[in-house]
Every structure is written in C-alpha cells, then in structure tokens.
Amino acid sequence: MRQPKILTTCKTYNRDQFFSDCLAGITVAMVAMPLSLAIAIASGADPAKGLVTAIIGGFFISLLGGSRVQIGGPTGAFIVVVFNVIATHGYDGLVLATFMAGIILVLAGYFRVGRLIAFIPEAVVNGFTIGIGIIIASSQLKDFMGLQLASVPADFLEKVPALWHARDSFNLPAFGVAMVTLVLIIGLRKAFPRFPGLIVAVALGSLMIVAFHLPVETLYSRFGALPQSLPVPSLPDLGWARIVELFPSALIIAFLAGVESLLSAMVADRMIDGNHRPNAELTAQGFANIASSLFMGLPATGAIARTATNVKAGGQTPVAGIVHAIVILLVMLIAAPLAGNLAMPALAALLMMTAWNMSEPHKWKSYAAGQRSDLFLLVLTLVLTVLVDLTVAIGVGVSLGLAMRWWERRTATSDWTTPDRSWTASEEEAEAIAHEMEAVAHEVEEIVQGVKAAPSGKKTDPASA
C-alpha cells in the first residue's frame, strides 16, 4: 500500500492532536537545526544546505510518508558518501546524484520493494553504521580540539597521521568549549529527556566564546553569514555522460535512504505500537530527495534520533513533521544571523555524540555473544567501511551475507528423526497373540494334511480343505 499516512490520520484529526503535534514539531525543530548545520559541515557542504534539506526534505517525508511520526532531513549516515561525492565530482555532482537517487526510490516504492529490507542482513547494517560513526568521530577531531589543519583527508589511513602531525596546534579554549557542550548534551538528556537540550547545550557552549573572548572559530568566521531565504529551485545538469558517471553514487544514496528510513519507521512502530507503510515511505523518500536536489540540498531520509524525539515530545501524526519543517524555515528567515555565532567546537561535540549514538555501544556485548558468522560479517563490513569504501562495504557485506544465509539453509539438518518402532506388549496382549498364532498354526497343519491325503494327480483347493 502506497497511500500516505496523512490521508488516514486526517479523517479523525482533532484540536488536541494539532496542539500536541505543534509542540512536538517545535521541539524537534530545535533539535534538528544544530544537527542539520553540523551534518552539512561534516559533509563538506555549506552549512545552509543542511537547513534547506531539513526544510524541504523534512516537509515531503512527512507529507507523503508511510509513518505517522517519521521525521526526515539530513542524517549522519550520509556524511561519508556526500563528502566523497563532493570531493570527487563537486557539489553539482552531488545534486545530480541526489536527484537520480530520488527517482530510484520513487520507482522502488512503485514496484513495492519496501519489504525487501528484511533480506538485508542485520550484521551488515550494524557494521556499516558503526563504521560510519567511527569516520564521523575522526572527522570532527580537528574542530573538537581546535587543530590548525588546512583540510582533513577523506581517507581514514591518511586522516589519522595528518591529525597526529597537527597535534602541536592544539587549542585549549576550543577543546574546553567542546567538552562543556558534550557534558551539557549528556546531562540535559538524562535530566530532561523531553526537553530540546541539544540546541541549549550548543548555544551555551557558543556563549562561552563571547563571555570569555575566546579565540575559537564560529560558523560566521569560517563560512560567512547564513542566507535568510530558500534558493530558487532549478534542475541539475542532466548530461548523459554525467548521469552514467554518478549512477553508482546515486544507487548508494538511494540504498542508504531506503534502509535508514525503513529502519527508523520500524523503530517508531515499536514506540507507538503502529504499523508503517514501507512502499509509501520509499515513495516519500524519493520525492523528498528530488525536491531537495531542486533546491540544491543534501540527500534526505528518515532520522531515527529526531523521530524518537518527536514521539517522546508527543507527536501523533505527520503534521508534527510538517510543523518541524515550517519552524526551521521561519528561523532561517528571521534569525539566520544568530546561527552564525554558533561555535565550531560545539557543533563538533554534537556530531561526536551523534557518532557515539549511531554505533549503539549498548549492543556491542550482544553482537560479541551472537553467532560467529554474524560477528564476522559485522566486523568485515565495519573494516571495509572505514578503510576502503562504503560502496564496497555494502556490496561485499550484502552479497556475502545472503550467500551465508543460503548456505545455512542448504546445510541445515532436518527436524525429522527415525521413528521408534520398538513395542512392548502387556501380558494380556501377549497371551491373546499366542492363542491367535496357535490357531493359525493349527489351520495351516490341517491344510497340509489335506494336501497329502488327496489322490495322485488331483489338485485340492486349500480353501475347501
């Protein structure tokens, strides 16, 4: 079924639900704004692109999606792919890849492939998620510690030595701002789980720069003023050679968007005891990414953390996600200059926390205690994600995982066992059987005697004996 959830929920929508959705939408917007800015920066894009993606992508994911409470926008899972596409093909290449990924997702929803998520081995998903978390965390060490480094290499094996060589430029004030922000994020989340503590923590960390006149970079000092309006929509360059060149990147973006959105929708189902529509969700992801690319935004997908925040804040219908997009738009139109004062170390701390949450350390023990084949697949996908390439990691992980699953089913031992045919009779049954056998033996003896007594050459019918 591809019908958007908003059409179902609007039939019984009431004033109380609208009030709850508005409060939840405002809360999620306060969480989404700093995250969207930080994700865009980590992806190698202009920070404003993160806000555009949250507004446009978030709006269409809620309007057309198959989940009641899904919140969409830029997510950490895309950072590695987006960074590599921008570095290799430029930002216009990313826009085209996002546009094509949107078309792929619309077709996936049309052909009802949403249920195929069940065939992707969970170990592969866990492996590349942890790998992405490691890459995100390592990419934020520069700003977290205030290191003076012209650019951070994309390759992990090159990045670590580059960061180590820049250790002498360690900036204690920047590190202090990052640590204070990190502690505030953790503390506010534990003390006030329903409160949008992310933006408060980032804001307080940034205020330290003004209060103590600290030599720390801000969004404005690095990127200039944020725009106060959405860009004019336009089609990307649709040259055939460019399409062929970027098609593999589009496939990866579509795969990540589909997997993460459906995983987020399943998590939301457990939280609200609901039932999402996977094909409607894929279709929504497709149109959201097409729309985001038209406004020069980043890839968008359902965000697990923001969706969970929406549920905890009381969101009940897709209206909450639409309100979240409208609130971010209003902030962009009215208060964009204020966002320029956000400290880079504070945003780095936010992404460090995001990377930690993505890796789900509370599940590591269960991973280690699980089947060895699953652990091997997880570690292999993780290593390939960090050291080689996300495309290779997903391709090898899914292929090997499906092959292992097929082999396990092929070699699985049957539950059938040879039936026990031994039988022990009781004394009464044994006595009755003995009498029957004696009677049969007596009849056989009479037949044999009759045959012997018959005249020569004359056959005797045993039945008449």
UniProtKB/TrEMBL annotation:
Keywords from UniProt, A to Z, are: Membrane, Transmembrane, Transmembrane helix
Domain SLC26A/SulP transporter residue range list:
18-381
Give the transmembrane ranges. Answer: 21-42, 48-64, 93-111, 123-141, 170-188, 195-214, 246-268, 322-355, 375-403
PANTHER family, alphabetized: SULFATE TRANSPORTER (PTHR11814)
**Subcellular location field:** Membrane
Primary localisation category: membrane
Q: Per the record, GO CC terms?
A: membrane
Q: Could you give a single Gene Ontology term from the biological process aspect?
A: transmembrane transport
Q: How does it sit in the membrane?
A: Multi-pass membrane protein
UniProt xrefs under Pfam families: Sulfate_transp
Name recorded for this polypeptide = Sulfate permease, SulP family
Origin organism of this chain? Cohaesibacter marisflavi
Question: Is Cell cycle there in the keyword field?
Answer: no
